[in-house]
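Holo prediction — beta-D-glucopyranose.
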Amino acid sequence: MPAVGGIGPGTGKDYPGNLTPFVTVTCIVAAMGGLIFGYDIGISGGVTTMTPFLQKFFRSVWEKKEADKSKNQYCQYDSPTLTMFTSSLYLAALLSSIVASVVTRKLGRKLSMLFGGLLFFTGALINGFAKAVWMLIVGRMLLGFGIGFANQSVPLYLSEMAPYRFRGALNIGFQLSITIGILIANVLNYFFAKIKGGWGWRLSLGGAMVPALIITVGSLVLPDTPNSLIERGQTEEAKAKLKRIRGVDDVDEEFKDLVAASETSKLVEHPWRNLLQRKYRPHLTMAILIPFFQQLTGINVIMFYAPVLFSTIGFKDDAALMSAVITGVVNVGATVVSIYGVDKWGRRFLFLEGGVQMLICQAVVAACIGAKFGTSGNPGDLPKWYAIVVVLFICIYVAGFAWSWGPLGWLVPSEIFPLEIRSAAQSINVSINMLFTFVVAQVFLTMLCHLKFGLFLFFAFFVIVMSVFIYYFLPETKGIPIEEMNQVWKSHWYWSRFVEDLDYPNGGMEMGKGGQGVKEV
Ligand code: BGC
């Protein structure tokens, strides 16, 4: 079978440019945008196991948990209001990423980040002082709006700033800060839960103001990307910026291609409708399926509910929070591995290896939980070694995700969209991601209650499907400049039928030099 996924014949382009300190620092600051997302993912699971928090806002869940002590463990946290607390945020993020796509296109990536930071800050403030459930939900919706803006703009910003040879590594800075955010949240929950007086949850929720401030201030000092400046007509400034970013004077070729890409994108009046054109079929497919599959790995079952899950399988509250810290550390460590490997081993290798690793672990965890809890959900006494085995395999699973679908779920979409559809396609990516984060968060506890240990097999099934999909349908994108990306579809066994020479007369570029050659957008 020709070119299932290997790198195509190449584009022959090699833009000069170094990994300058300027671009490195800029990307680190921008990547901090991931902190707000990560902090939130990590904080909610822990807070919802804190007794004072449950007593204050979700009394019925707490009473049920108390009364149920010796009965069915699978169902003790099953409450739609409690899951609504966790998942309302993702609905808001879904909606806001659509608005954010217009802002990122018209006002730039930087301003989107600023809005993200401010909205998130307000949400954190309301949550920290919450007196009633409605305040919690309103606060979380504001957090969600913030995340929608940040997740829309940060990955695009990073991919546009980075020299293409280091694009993978720099872009994964975003995922790294997501994982650091999750870990910090887990550690804080662990300590705040111990505060006498039971108001530690206020610190946990209000603490989100800190990452919000980091991204707010960060966005004020960051430069705009050359792509975005050109898109908004500031060509001279864009060229100067490109020289500064790349650390060389000879940026003519890259600059010309950026301008050409921008001219094409200006011809597009309806970026959304445009996405439906046949030649964007591969992009649209990836914008939908990659985030869908990322969430169907089941990762957020662990991220949101690790403490709940661990206490379900018999850990005391404290040990359950501690185990969440352990998975958090593994998550950060394994992300660093992908930063190291992504531009060396490529995206496909990581996707496929991670898939196999997750699959094995899901099968083992399902077997372990099934063996002890059966279908009644009543385990009797659990030996210590048993809990250790479960935590170990959950950690190996998290590592598998953290060097594959975690970072690549954000990297690959942000690098494959041509400029004329980039903002719109990215917002589809973010919306689908948030939609399925919402679905998983909302139905997980109910699914656990009904599917029992089979829940892990449900996600394992999807891991098989997604790995087969990657094998056949995702071309390798490592080491290809963004402006040249169409080449990879043209040389792909399946996608080549959609992306024809006619569409890209300039040897696989999105447009002819100086914007010629594209008539039908
Ligand atoms: C995903 C999140 C997930 C996180 C875990 C991200 O890439 O989008 O849903 O919680 O990784 O590290």
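READOUT: The CA atoms of residues 126 and 135 lie 7 Å apart.
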